[in-house]
Design brief:
Length: about 260
């Protein structure tokens, strides 16, 4: 049984971005800093209608491609022999409830619902067994992808990197185990992806360890762990919701030209 220890968010509090501890009941507690750098309750409580912000401000957003067998198959790709890493820029982040903007350069922009690992401790060259200690918690993201540009460009920087291509949040939740969580993505209320993190090819400790072999992972960095099958296109006016067991629900809208 998965145990939830704590749940955090980042909100606007008195006009400033602030981390909060969100208890199961009662008002959220404003923290003095991000929880992974030792933030403590300041004594202030949050009003119920605060604006939610992306719960991390990562120095890097690492994506993992083709980490679910049936998703690799649906796009007629081979399953990779080692984790397939790519970057999304921090400028792609969108706050919970925000809007993905479809860029004019693409005719096919897809949703990919994904579990997010949030790093809590600086680490480099950790083993899979050491990786758990570096993980602060888990969240939800959409790895929005311009599928036509991904195929055309060969490498993925542009296809994965447009502004607004990474809705993330709303919470970061500390779980004892994220290895078998149900994940669903709905477009306009219809279930389009219905998977489980149990179906990852490379598990979470392996992904953290692998990434840390080449780059120092910093507190607040995030790893998007890949998407199950069922990816499909987004269009202007869509309302998207991603639900992961114990992590809550991330919602966002979609718009055409700005
Ligand atoms: Zn993805």
């Amino acid at each position: 049984m998965t145990e939830i220890s704590s749940r955090y968010a980042r909100v606007l509090y008195q006009g400033q971005p602030s981390y909060v501890l969100v208890p199961p009941t009662g008002p959220a507690q404003v923290l003095t800093a991000a929880p992974w750098v030792g933030g403590r309750p300041s004594g202030a409580e949050l009003a119920a209608n605060a604006t939610m912000l992306c719960p991390a401000t990562p120095s890097k957003i690492i994506g993992i491609g083709r980490n679910y067998r049936k998703h690799a198959e649906e796009l007629k790709n081979e399953v990779p022999e080692q984790p397939l890493m790519f970057f999304k820029p921090p400028s792609s982040l969108v706050d919970p409830g925000g809007t993905v903007q479809l860029p004019p350069e693409s005719e096919r922009v897809d949703y990919e619902g994904e579990l997010v690992v949030v790093i809590g401790q600086r680490c480099r060259r950790v083993s899979p067994s050491e990786a758990q200690a570096a993980i602060f918690g888990y969240s939800i993201a959409c790895d929005v992808t311009a599928r036509d540009l991904q195929q055309k460009d060969k490498q993925w920087t542009r296809a994965k990197g447009f502004d607004t291509f990474c809705p993330l949040g709303p919470f970061i939740v500390q779980l004892s185990d994220a290895s078998r969580l149900g994940l669903q993505l709905l477009v306009n209320g219809k279930i389009c992806q219905d998977g489980s993190t149990a179906d990852m090819i490379f598990d979470i400790p392996t992904l953290v360890s692998y990434a840390s072999q080449s780059m120092t992972l910093e507190p607040g960095d995030v790893i998007l762990t890949g998407t199950p099958e069922g990816v499909g296109p987004l269009k202007h006016g869509d309302a998207v919701s991603i639900r992961i067991e114990n992590l809550g629900e991330l919602t966002f809208g979609v718009t055409g030209q700005p």
